[in-house]
Amino acid sequence: MSKSLQIVVDDIDVQIIRKKIKNLHLRVYPPDGRVRVTAPMYVSDDGIRSAVLDRFGWIRKQQVRLAKLPPVVPCEMVSGESHYYLGESYPLEVIERKGKHEVMLKNNSALLLYVRPGTCVDKRALILSDWYRQEIKTMIPELIQKWEPIIGVQVDDWGIKKMKTRWGTCNIGARRIWLNLELMKKPMACLEYVLVHEMVHLLERYHNKNFKAYMDRFVPDWRLHDETLKREPLLRYV
Question: Which of 51, 101, 125, 155 is the most buried (most CB within 10 A)?
Fold first, then answer.
């Protein structure tokens, strides 16, 4: 059971959620830069204030970055609208027909969305999302198989889901990796970088010098991919 409250730290509103977890997590959320701290039950308010103040400069930097981003564009799911697939922008062609719903990449130049007449916007978006999910699921096993012997770890389980603030997560105890479905809209190199990042957590839990040394060894240009993913918040379309 979690407990939630709100505090102000040097003019920053901070939402606090206490859970039965081991470590404190601080995040800045798009689009307005709101701050949320998820903390273990035993951490005091003063302890949380101290953690926020320690990262005050980073919080302000993230808020400034988010404020400069263009507003979220509502997704209308109509012909001519641009959608991303592996870092490339494709015009959407909506084709109404009887039969099953389907998405196809036409000659690497357009995304074809076949829907039954009268299909609503939400349903169209779900069909495209399901296609992204099917595509990424065909790619991950081969990538894991490639990187396991290189990194020297074994992934016991993996999954795909939409996440608002993370590109990926790793449950070290279960050796399970989750990847964000939105990665299908980013370059393939970014998808692979996030997977390696989470796999490296099976060697090193924290983002410390050891972790960065592993990343430098396995993906020397990982910082470039990290910057690519930081240029926009995770969900630019709703």
Answer: 155
